[in-house]
Amino acid sequence: MTESNKPRLEVCLSPALLHLYDVKSSIVVIIDVLRATSTICTALANGATKIIPVATVEECVNIGRQLEAITAGERDGKIAEGLKHGNSPFEYSRDFIEGKVMVLTTTNGTKLLHMAKDAVQIVTGSFPNISAVCDYLVAQKQNVILGCAAWKDRVNLEDTLFAGAVVSRIREHFDVSCDSAIAAETMYEASKGDLFEAMKNATHFKRLSNFGLEADIRYCLTADGANVLPVLRNGELVLG
Amino acid sequence: MTESNKPRLEVCLSPALLHLYDVKSSIVVIIDVLRATSTICTALANGATKIIPVATVEECVNIGRQLEAITAGERDGKIAEGLKHGNSPFEYSRDFIEGKVMVLTTTNGTKLLHMAKDAVQIVTGSFPNISAVCDYLVAQKQNVILGCAAWKDRVNLEDTLFAGAVVSRIREHFDVSCDSAIAAETMYEASKGDLFEAMKNATHFKRLSNFGLEADIRYCLTADGANVLPVLRNGELVLG
Description:
Two copies of one chain form a homodimer. The first copy, chain A, has helices at 36-45, 57-67, 94-97, 109-115, 130-140, 157-170, 179-191, 195-199, 203-209, 214-220; strands at 9-12, 26-31, 50-53, 70-75, 78-79, 101-105, 121-125, 143-148, 230-233, 236-239. By secondary structure, the first copy, chain A, is α/β, with parallel strands linked by helices. The first copy, chain A, has one domain (9-228): ComB-like (putative 2-phosphosulfolactate phosphatase, Alpha-Beta Complex), CATH 3.90.1560. In chain A, the strands form three sheets. A four-stranded parallel beta sheet of chain A has the order 1-8-2-7, with helices on both faces. In chain A, strands 3-6-4-5 form a four-stranded mixed beta sheet. The first copy, chain A, has a two-stranded antiparallel sheet with strand order 9-10. In chain A, a hairpin with a 2-residue loop joins β4 and β5 (78-79). The longest helix of chain A has 14 residues, at 157-170. The radius of gyration of chain A is 17 Å and the shape is globular. The A-B interface holds A 1, 13-14, 16-17, 20, 151-157, 160, 176-180, 182-183, 186-187, 189-191, 198, 201-204, 206 and B 1, 13-14, 16-17, 20, 151-157, 160, 176-180, 182-183, 186-187, 189-191, 198, 201-204, 206. Chains A, B: This is Probable 2-phosphosulfolactate phosphatase. Chains A, B: Its cofactor is Mg(2+). Chains A, B: Belongs to the ComB family.
């Protein structure tokens, strides 16, 4: 019954549960599907030199000014006051972002990223870079925590679905003795035929679609549109 | 899109997330499928006069002595040292429990029950009393939190599946704007054809089946074997 020769693959459904996991011995994948981590891989795939995740809007403004960088981020799904750009992946075309530094703050994703700072390695995951994430995790042969950013600590559907998609793809390489991972995988398997349809009941879908962002949501649920691996090095997200 | 004329139905997947919910304005259903809440309805259905849930083994022993009551409970899935009985529903046949008081402490369920003390009403739910729980919730027309006891704060499959079963049965009477509720329902719908089979990968299944308790698990996943409603009154669980 034990598969002790394989590393562990676990899913943490909310930052408020992260203390229950052994972060220090694991690679942590930060998951904030709508939309921070989808935007992060998109910006890097389109040539951003690096992305600096910060906790507050104030830091974002200050660091942005010092570095003459793009300041981006949202609070409650909208561009945060004082910042120039939001966290829609469509804002970060190659024309716009290539060769530039981006400073990013979001409601949930950047918070979790800072909480996981003691991990062996932090990377970010989303459907647009799912293959890059899975290839990396399989190659490392280390314990993995798929960390859902959630919504103000409440479990959300989109991050859970992505975690489940990763479990579904790579479970044979890992010991999956984590009910959250099994639950996420079951959710994904039940929904993968039409993720967009499955998302229509999600609270964040309603929040975003109220702002007219359905194209964002479709992009953020589609595999491999920006298939690169963002890794955290010295507090900055760069291509892995 | 709003259904504000209906009360809210939400699912809390772990006690560590309960602070995110408005307990004071809600009925809370305590869910500890394997095995505390399955055993609670079974003991009451078989004639126990009341069940006193306590946090510690010491309290259990002391109150049991004062009241000449049955002391029951487990730690980590086994009968706790110093107690006479475990929390297998099969220990509480009518012959044994009728007319008696039971003092109960468990790893997870009794903890959540005490955390939810400010709720409008606390009841306990499990597959053996799912119909009684659903009928009650529909009749009350109040906000509901389905509170999973989980396993030492980690989300578990069996409590999530039960919460999903309740959502599936009564969602038309409620406003379900809670991703955890939608996730639990999706899980249940994907697994309901054979809950026992679905549970075979669960961490707690392995924990219990190591102790030879598969008959317990089958009973605890079967609807309406002890279809009564335990409600908390003055700190005691009695028939509703």
